[in-house]
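Morning F.,

Quick status update on the modeling queue. The single chain you submitted on Monday has been processed. Sequence for confirmation:
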Amino acid sequence: MQYLLLIGAILWFAFIAPLKVTLATCLFVLVILSVVRFSAQAVTGVQATFGEAAKAVSLSLVFLVIAILAWVSLSFGVPKGMSVQISGLGGYAVFGSTLAAYVLGFKLGLGISFGSSAVIALISSAASTVAFMLIRGLF
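Structure tokens below.
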């Protein structure tokens, strides 16, 4: 059932997005999946498939959204007219929780140790930033 939902979401995105955006998104996803797959092989020596890499990236993004929503929900208790500014120790806590969520997705998706998944998360974060800048420049 989840595969049908995924295919439906991909088709929905392809129908509503312009062709250039759809092609850039497909290229970006393929680059990131390749980076995760090859970095997992380099770091752990285990051959990961594209399906496992997609599962790991998807889990990382889901955990990242959950962490961000948890931090945003804390700001809803603030009286109207006041703003929340996260700095100092709170900023480190937000960074640490989002990093842990990202790493946890790779740990559960690839079935590797926490340290190895942290290295893969670091490599894929740097590669995704570079890939985004290059793909944005092409399109």
